[in-house]
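Checked the freezer inventory, then went back to the computational side. Two predictions to log before the end of the day. The first one is the construct we discussed on Monday; recording sequence and tokens without edits.
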Amino acid sequence: MFKKILIANRGEIALRIHRACKEMGISTVAVHSEADASALHVKLADEAVCIGPAPANQSYLNIPAILSAAELTDSEAIHPGYGFLSENAKFAEIIKELGFTFIGPAPEHIRQMGDKIEAISTAQRIGLPTIPGSCGAINTIEEAISSAEKIGYPIILKAASGGGGKGMKVAHSEGALRAAYNIARSEAKAAFGDERVYLEKYLQNPRHIEVQILADTHGNVITLGERDCSLQRRHQKVLEEAPSPILTQKQRDKLLYTCQKAISKLGYLGAGTIEFLYENGEFFFIEMNTRLQVEHPVTEMTTGVDLVQEQIRIAAGLPMKITKNPVALRGHSIECRINAEDPITNLPRPGTVTDYYPAGGPGVRIDSALYPGYSVPPYYDANIAKLIVHASTREECLKRLKRALDEYIIGGVTTNLPLHKKVLNCDAFINGTYDIHFLESFMKQED
């Protein structure tokens, strides 16, 4: 087992990884920008190294600075968390070349699944169902129109290297496709340095369902249930729950079995998430995230498995603690992403935390690096906390979540806590009948 791990991230996920390491008897190294010198993960780590100025491209995306910190502190392994460099295949390659261990999958799998076009081709090869699409990049508007006519409108353009809604455009007609094509390519180029786009059938009212998997070097591949991530705004997840309230046990069993077989065929190692759109009883692969997910706590609450510790064990060449597949699920869990943003406009609202009273009690978990007096910097993602609750049933979980949201106080910073409270009183959410368009419609009604 490793003696020292460098955590190449910040905020609540850096603190989450630190805690997992300490419980395993592993020393931690925090890296931080100048803006994060007073961050909680920096205060609690065994060692801390400043890796640059506030902008992420000069610090948390600065590969030479991170690797220099690893060498300076004699770290053995590097955990990337999520975001930043977590799905950067080159970063993983360099780590390996320099003799460190990357706590994540092999670089070839990161690269393979990071290119959405190649990911779809791979999914088809390993037996995952995919959405009807262009079967490759669309290089001209004429190709796009021809492909759309074969698939049938509406269609959606997506960036090959994309994520987070950037480079995504929906077209319901040829005219709309002509107008959207160059815009999508320009957005993709600006966001990812890759202007390639591809085309898929646009599903009207799908759910976003994802499956958590773990695979080790001893031939064990397990699934840890599914998460329903359909509550989204601008293609960004806002609330997640596990298990999905709309799947039958038969559907769940079939989905998990399909994913387990596919990952075994792929030869993947580590933690990963296979994401699907679900509509009219059918699942369609959309992408695979080769890292830990923001919403991983709901899986931990419903399975009892510490995903970060399992990531570390796998990277160290040890077998997972739990190898029975699928992992048994217990109860229901919901996570609310708490962001420092205006709950109506969705614009970031950084500031200084004046009062901080996290919710507590049975079945309540807070993943956050906030404390009174902490200044939320304006340079990074707006997520400042995650409120996770667990109960034996979904109904009990909803009641517990309402109570926890009422208890949770973050003073001095504007957050989206009011939005979560409103959603929990909406019939579509209470009944579990919402889809990925629900929150957008709900917000328009609120406006």
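The second is the one RB wanted added to the comparison set:
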Amino acid sequence: MNDNRERFLRVRDILLATDEDHPVTSAQIVARLDSVGLSCDRKAVLRDIEALTDYGMDILKCPDNKTGVFLGSRDFEDWELKILIDAVQSANFLTRSQTDGLVQRLSALASDASAQTLAAVPKSPSSIKRGEGETKNHIETLLHAIRKRCKVHFLYTYTGGDMATKFRHSKKTEPVSPYALIWQHDKYYLIGNWSGAAPFSYYRLDRIHKLEILENVPAVPLDELLPNGEKGLRNYIDENIYATSGKRVLIELEGFEDMTDTVLDAFGDNAVIEQFDTDRIRCRIKTNENKGLYGWLMEHAENLKVISPEHIRDGVRDRLRAALGVYEEEHEVYRNMPPQKD
């Protein structure tokens, strides 16, 4: 490489490592270049800095004009990199090596001092890794299929009680029209349609096996499934929790005031909340009726009560009775067991 070109690129790299608290002088840049066999004077470095500024780098001088220059702004601020790094570390579908590689590349977007700070932060306690590395390839393949508007075929798996991977649908899965990839509850899901009619189906990417694109099989157009196309799909996603589908319903709940944030965390703008007593709230929520909804209602049944519709109120009550029956039966079994000998 031409020495002038290499010097220019190395000056850029040196500046990328700076920040307001860690500037660099032209003399220090000359010394660093000299250490790698690129001899030059301060004027050449100052010309490179001027050229980089003209190119668009936000290179600022220190207020005293003596302690050097630094990079004033970057594509990502430290707080943004922190969020991205935490998301990567919490994604259990990534392998540990994939996680470490992504964190390293994200940290490299910060100054050297900030990168050290970001690397020193303890990992999130939810960073349990079960990924086998296929999710990366699945995301790339599915994005290609969505862009090409063609169907995909795959085998869908689950883990049996013997910890062995097993196949649903007797290893036969109809081609699926893919529409979107979403990340919910630390899992990646494909939203697709296999029947040509609503509703959609959710597929966990870490359970997909032998994914292939059917290049010559066009996907069902989204407008044929939803009147508003992509906007309708976005609304559909917002109205589902726990990545399961179902028919749209309006439910009314009553509960304690300290459940307000819990409701908002689950339903966001789809929930209308008003206070009707000193420490109680009433909620009207537009969502979809599915297993996820019933699971959420049962989880919070002690503090939130379904007022309407009646069939959902009955459904929660029946499920709670069934759960109680399991434990009462267990109690009877253990009560009739002979005492254990020491």
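For RB: Residues 310-335 form the longest helix (26 residues). The chain has four domains: 3-71, 78-120, 134-238, 247-328. Let me know if you want it refolded.
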